[in-house]
Amino acid sequence: MLPLKSIGKTIIGIFLLAGCEKGYDLVIPEPFEMENVPEFTSFQEAENMDTIAVLTFGNSFSYDALYYLPSIAHSRGKVIISGNLVLGGCSLERHWTNVKESFVGYDYFKDAGMEHQYLTGYPIEQAYYDEDWDVVVFQQAALRSGDYNSYVPYIFQIHETMMRTLKKNVAYVWHQTWAFPEDSDYDSFESYKYSQNYMYECIVAASCRISKELGSRCFFPSGTAIQNMRQEIGDNLCRDNRHLNDLGRYTAACVWYESLFGEAATTISYHPSTITEEAARLAREAAHRAILSPFSVWQKE
């Protein structure tokens, strides 16, 4: 693996935003240097487990990120038990409403090792007790992912409810999602000036802040891994105007694997047959770089 260095300084700003749908406006601050960037460890480093059960409050982006994770884990002699609560475009605000109202209607994607289930009309409260969860993952809806103000108070309300409901030693983890392709025609991409780099910087700022406030000991920087990979192969990681293709999914799954099990993504040998060995190697390196530097893009020396 080639030596790496960080590109420039990571920046963070305070973003004053007022929603996330079409017509959503951003008030753009002058960026300033990020201070007190959190340091993360892997879940495995703290717990020394080869089987990890993960519950995700998700949407289609978590579906993409988790797509190849069970296969990667299996190839390394590990087991992922995953429960993914999915509603398309679901925001933290919507998840919190669903928690309060004991919502019945999620798509629930359940992986137990290499066994897969897809259940519809699933009750959110049933998911709490479906497994003895080790990790609970939160993320924000794609359009709101760069807007810290859209996270609160909902993330803390969900977090507090889960802390009262689940076992005491659950790890709560933030999933940093990715910026849209530069040529995305998604209507609300206008909120980010139709700029992938600007959207990524907003996501970095918000995800850094929320991970510190949650006290997360590990972190899933899929957004940074995707940007790292874009530096290598160009903007060819999405199958439409925002969702990942197979190579993008593989890149994100490598991030989750390393963050959970503490084994460098570069040691993974499995890759789906739809991508080449060289592309898989680049994806694994991009993921590993993101773990080393989750809030800034890296480049080769």
User: Numbering strands along the chain, what is their spatial order in the largest sheet?
Assistant: 9-8-7-6-10-11-12
The CATH architecture comes to 3-Layer(aba) Sandwich
State the CATH superfamily name.
SGNH hydrolase
Using the CA coordinates, give the radius of gyration. Answer: 18 Å
- Average pLDDT reading: 88
Amount of helix: 25-40%
CATH topology: Rossmann fold
Structural class: alpha/beta
Most strands sheet: 7 strands, mixed
Number of strands: 13
State the end-to-end CA separation.
11 Å
Low-confidence stretches: 1-24, 27-32
How would you sum up the global shape?
A: globular
Percent strand equals: 15-25%
Number of helical runs? 10
What key attributes describe this structure?
single chain; 301 residues; alpha/beta; Rossmann fold; seven-stranded mixed sheet; two-stranded antiparallel ribbon; 13 strands; 20% strand
Topology:
Elements: E1 4-6, E2 11-12, E3 16-17, E4 26-27, E5 32-33, H1 43-47, E6 51-58, H2 60-66, H3 69-75, E7 79-86, H4 92-100, E8 104-112, E9 115-123, H5 124-128, E10 135-138, H6 154-165, E11 171-176, H7 196-214, E12 219-221, H8 222-233, H9 246-261, H10 277-292, E13 298-300
Parallel strand pairs: 6-7, 6-10, 10-11, 11-12
Antiparallel strand pairs: 1-13, 2-5, 3-4, 7-8, 8-9
Helix pairs in contact: 4-6, 8-9, 8-10, 9-10
Give a verbal description of the structure.
This protein is an alpha/beta fold. The protein has one domain: Rossmann fold (3-Layer(aba) Sandwich), CATH 3.40.50. 36% of the residues lie in helices and 20% in strands. Helix 8 crosses helix 9 (246-261). The chain is globular, with a radius of gyration of 18 Å. Mean pLDDT is 88; it is low at 1-24 and 27-32.
